[in-house]
Predict the 3D structure of the following.
Amino acid sequence: MADMSPKLLSGVSVLVVEDNEDALELLCTVLSLHGAIVTATVSAREALEHLASVRPDVIVSDLAMPEMTGLQLIEKVHALPSQIEWPTPALAMTAYTQDEYRSQALNHGFMAFLPKPMDPKALVKEVGRLAGKTA
C-alpha cells in the first residue's frame, strides 16, 4: 500500500499525449492527485512542440491518434538531439490490447505498455517505476 501514497509521483514531470478529452482529463487527474506535475497535450504535434523546450521525466502517450500515431511520435521524440543519448521513458496506452500492439510499442521505443480502459493504480505504479520512484 505504501507505493500508492498520494506523494508517490511528487515532483515527477509527466507529458500526457491523448486526443480524447475525457481520457486526457482522467489521466491528468489521476497523475496530479499522486503529486505529478502534468502537462497535457492533445496531439503528437503539440507534444513535440512542448518537447522542443522542456524535458519531462516520463511521457504517457495514446497510440491511436489522428495525423501522427503514438508510434510515430516516440520515433520522433527519440530522434531529438536532447533524447539521443538518454531517451525519456515513455508509457504507451491503447485500447488495442493484443500482444502484437504491445510488441510494436516496445519495439518502437516505449518502455511500458498499459491497456485502456486505464487502471489508475497500474498507471501510477508504471509512471513511478519509469521515473525511478518504485521498483
